[in-house]
Amino acid sequence: MLTYFLVACDRLDEKQEKKLRQNLPELQAVLQAYVEANEAANVTLINDCESDDCEDWQLGISQPVKKHLHLNFPVNLFNSLATRFNIDCEVGYIADDVREPVSYFGKDEGPGEAFLIAEYLGL
Questions:
Q1: Could you give the 3-state DSSP secondary structure of residue 5?
Q2: Which domain of life, per UniProt (predicted)?
Q3: Domain spans of the chain?
Q4: Alpha-carbon torsion, ordered 84, 27, 6, 59, to 10 deg
């Protein structure tokens, strides 16, 4: 199953957007480092932040998973990003090039749990 993890860039207030814009280079660097460290697992970077409107941004990763244990690393990564940058995250699966969200976690939603996310994904 191809999963994705995104930084939630929509429904942000002005203060949150400003902070996200300030932290964007660092977020991109952390995600790029994760992708490079996990090339063998076919992790790819989602980095579409060209729009002037944060709501249109798509920033995160996609990663194939077969077992719920494969979710531990990306969930831990995005939990740490949520804590460090005060953001929320969206997780879901990709089918026919369409992203289907199954859960949100982070600053406002609380920490993500790999086991529960695996249940939502049907793993």
A1: strand
A2: Bacteria
A3: 2-121
A4: 160
**7: CB partners within 8 A, 6+ apart:** 20, 27, 57, 59, 60, 81, 87, 88, 89, 90
- Provide the token pair at 71: 């979710």
pLDDT the model gives residue 88: 94
Place of tokens 């993890």: 5
Hey, CA dihedral for 109, 113, 118, 120, is it positive or negative?
A: negative
pLDDT score at 28: 97
Compute φ and ψ for 86, nearest 5 degrees.
Answer: 55, 55
Contact 81, 61 (CB under 8 A): no
- Mean pLDDT by groups of 10 residues along the chain of 123 residues: 94 89 96 95 95 93 93 96 94 96 92 95 92
DSSP letter string, 63-106: EE-SSGGGGHHHHHHHHHHHHHHT-EEEEEEEETTEEEEEEEEE
| Strand ranges across the sheet with 88-95 | 44-48, 58-64, 2-7, 88-95, 98-106
